[in-house]
From TrEMBL:
Keyword NADP included in the entry's annotation: yes
Protein name from the UniProt record: Quinone oxidoreductase-like
Enoyl reductase (ER) domain boundaries: 11-320
Entry's Gene Ontology molecular function annotations: mRNA 3'-UTR binding; NADPH binding; quinone reductase (NADPH) activity
Keyword Amino-acid biosynthesis found: no
Listed GO CC annotations: cytosol
Gene3D superfamilies from the UniProt entry: Medium-chain alcohol dehydrogenases, catalytic domain, NAD(P)-binding Rossmann-like Domain
Keywords: NADP
SMART domains: PKS_ER
PANTHER family reported for this sequence: QUINONE OXIDOREDUCTASE (PTHR44154)
Amino acid sequence: MMRAVQALKYGGPEVLQINNIAIPKPKKGEVLIKVHFAGINPIDALITSGFMGTSGPLPLIPGMDTAGVVEEVGDGVKGFKKGDRVYTVATDNGAYAQYTVTTPKHIAHLQPSLTFAQGAAIGVPYYTAWKSLYFRAQAKSKETILVHGASGAVGIAAVQIAKANGHLVIGTAGTKEGLDLVKKVGADFVFNHRQEGYMDEIQKATKGAGVNVILEMLANVNLDKDLDLLAQRGRVVVVGCRDGIRIEPVKTMFKETSILGVALLTASDEEWQEIKNGVENLQKKGKVQPIVSREYKLSEVAQAFTEILKNSGTLGKFVLDTSK
């Protein structure tokens, strides 16, 4: 038996409970992982609430990101063996549990230099950032990247990836702590998006040319402003949005700019493998350095959901210690 977080119905943090359930068995082509830490993403809370649609069986074990050790491999599995340190980007039965099952497609090796808590902060943030930059925005060498809301998990991942790949990187945050962190992880320029006139400062940093790509973490607040910051044929990728917003479509016309959405799990097998290879290469070079904001016990999962949905000044990634 194992301990797992379950939602017996869709709803807010109050529907989450800790239950003892059977450890899953890996089938052919599957891997069983003993989970040390699970990553907590805003989308986990949204899926649990039913906001993202209510398809899928209940009870639901939330989550996709884990880090731990391979416990058992099913027939036909290659590239992984019992005892390997790994992280996941998706699972078959959920992440907030002491064991999980998934396929080799969604597993990668975790470098010895990174902790399991950091490993649980790689999957969704880094893969989403990579897909946003290079499959949705199709960012080109030397282009300027603005990460709007760069102090959260995806933002930090985007700054590190873009900087490692040779881009000029601008990041925004809403607190001094956030600004300091974004600068620490590699941004060339940082600006407080709560400060009046920050857009003018960004334009000065680009010498009036604007930015080529914006990764937007809170489109319902910033999207219309983003359109003013774009260079000719610039692209905004909407990574996060909590509500509606009014924009002026004419702003997209004369500069021929684009607004693009991103959803990680719609990636094709070829795209997925390229993302995986890219993140793995940067991990080996020491360029993947996840920031863990806070570690929660299993019993604190409802509190974690409440806090992550506030979306106020998050610094890095929340993770869940499945041993506590």
